[in-house]
Design goal:
Mean pLDDT: 90
Number of helices: 6
Strand order of the largest sheet: 3-2-1-4-5-6
Distance between the termini: 38 Å
Length: 208
Amino acid sequence: MALDHTRMKLVIVDRDGTVCVEREGYLQTPDDWEPLPGALDAIARLNHAGCHVVIAANMPGLGRGLFDVAALNAIHARMNKQLAAVGGRVEAVFYCPHAPDEGCACRKPRPGLFRQIGERYKVDLTHVHAVGNSLHDVQAAIAAGCVPHLVLTGRGAPASTDPLPPEFPPGTRVHADLAAFATTFIAELEAQAENPAPSAGPPAPASR
């Protein structure tokens, strides 16, 4: 898909299993936060390439009362501090606070979180690339119209991708991890910058 450089370059990423290590019982305190190898540097490299990075994540532990918003904010404060140390930044964290049985519109695989992001940043989601490690991440991205990317990290990743299991939508792009996604995506941005699509030019004069 061609990248339009007149639009904001926005990348949506999942959190647990994509940026950080997944935990049994969810991340409940800042001490539970542990970035996956290369993930923070990947976000920094995306930033340096002109991309804004936003996290979209299900947080069912909130709905189940396992932790509160103050604990969640403390976890993300630790994440942001570690990101800053490598020159990276996450613009915002959008999250679904509901338990799975609440039937909300924002819990992935539903596209509600992605639509909230599109509204906040006034972007066309068809130009947004979304990265996650599970089928639900990919399904939510597809439902919102984003370009779907699957990383093979975390518990949600399929055991084999050769071939990709049939439940994954056609067009899903697969990467070993977030660092591999960043390398590929930045290379595509650079190629587009070097070889921009030709302008359609002014309209032809009307015939008389």
